[in-house]
Amino acid sequence: MNDPRNIRISTLESGLRVVSDSMDTVETASVGVWVNAGARDESVDINGISHLLEHMAFKGTKRRNAYAIAAEIEAVGGHLNAYTSRENTAYYAKVLKEDVPLAVDLLGDILQHSVMAEEELERERAVILQEISQAIDTPDDIVFDHFQETAFPDQAMGRPVLGRPEVVGAMGRERVLAYMRERYSAPRLIVSAAGRIDHDALVELAEAAFTQLPTQTDTTRDDPTYIGGDYREARDLEQVHLVLGVEGLSYKDDDFYAASILSALLGGGMSSRLFQEIREKRGLAYSISSFLSCYTDTGIFGVYAGTSEGEAADLLPLVLDELDKAKSDVTAEEVNRARAQLKASLLMALESTSSRCEQLAQQMLVFGHPVPTSEIVSKVEAVDEAAVMRVASRLFQGAPTLATMGPVGKVAPYGEISRRL
Q1: H helix and E strand count, the chain
Q2: For residue 146, which of 86, 79, 275, 232 has the smallest C-alpha distance?
Q3: Positive or negative CA dihedral for 38, 35, 214, 73?
Q4: Average pLDDT, integer, range 246-262
Q5: For the chain, N or C: smaller number of CB within 10 Å?
Q6: What pLDDT, on the 0 to 100 scale, is given for residue 2?
Q7: Is 54 a catalytic residue?
Q8: CA-to-CA distance for 291 and 294, rounded, in angstroms?
Q9: Which of 383, 419, 413 is nearest to 399 (CA)?
Q10: What's the CA gap between 413 and 404, in Å, rounded?
């Protein structure tokens, strides 16, 4: 298939990279800045600083107060947002094509000239502490943090993106600014845009807007070491929330697409093995799914389920049965269906400027260059039953990670689960 994207890349003298995907059939554009810094770049004494910095970037600059930042983008019908992950932080906007200059100017302003006023910092810390409390009160959310920490104990990769309340509550203005100087350098930033975009004009806008970025910063990042283990928290809940996983693989791994199809086959939809066996045939869970979380150098393959206390004892052995079956019994029909899901998801995303913009940025951060759609599709299509069984045999072995919350007394012992794998 022909790649439906019109992609160009430029690198400024500062090292800032600008990438765009021109779409002549739309009247809008998505533009953002992706920073190669996230929760895994934090030491234990500043856990949560990437997320705090993301919030504070919108709280006022030397030219605009917090209200002006919101009012200017909304005055043209656009929106401005951000998120923090384990490996990067993103700041992005969606606007009409004629308002791209405003979006780039706003992004440049908040990422270089944030004042981090003490009163705003104190207020935003309180907001984030409420966000952390809300996550703690949401078992099907916080169980994933416990799962990640159990998989990568005493490591940045295992710490929560939101941070620890006691650490966030004590973080001062100068430390936040220092972290920004340490990690937000031009070579670590990607300006990405998709939609009704003129690349040369975008480069000129970026050159004008991003003049105060450091050209060299700290790029150290500890190598993660998967350990695995058992986390159980007894809570007075109606359901047991559990996540069972194993060491996965990175985005760059040759088995990435086979593992993606394996995940879709096992728990990617209502026709998947886990959904059919656990929910439809046996009624042991309302919610069950599998996931493949990949990073630049490691990953996690896991299964989440929410079940009642009485069904918890039966559920995990059945999940383990399905993982084991995938090593030697996969049909062409299942693989074809999973392939179709992945291809449809990829190609449908090409209809969205926001999805294209983010995909470009992530590919630049992981691979250093955009990956043609045709290449991705061909790799997905090349996965057959043998490849899926091979990657299942590769993944489903060794030390598992299990995190459970709720009435956990009937969940199988960790040693028994570990022996089954």
Answers
A1: 16, 11
A2: 232
A3: negative
A4: 98
A5: N
A6: 52
A7: yes
A8: 10
A9: 419
A10: 11
Note the pLDDT tens digit of each residue in 142-155: 999 999 999 999 99
d(CA 139, CA 237): 9
Q: Grade residue 192 by pLDDT with cuts at 50, 70 and 90.
A: very high
Q: Which is catalytic among the residues 13, 27, 42, 54? A: 54
d(CA 316, CA 415): 13
Q: Percent of the chain beyond pLDDT 90?
A: 95
Residues contacting 29, CB < 8 A, separation 6+: 94, 95, 96, 97, 100, 103, 193, 194, 195, 196, 197, 353
| pTM (predicted TM-score) | 0.94
- For 193, residues 6+ apart whose C-beta sits below 8 A from its C-beta are 18, 19, 20, 21, 29, 30, 31, 32, 100, 202, 357
Separation of alpha carbons 411 and 392, rounded Å: 24
In sequence order, what are the beta bridge partners of 61?
Answer: 114
The rounded distance, in Å, linking the Cα atoms of 386 and 332 is 10
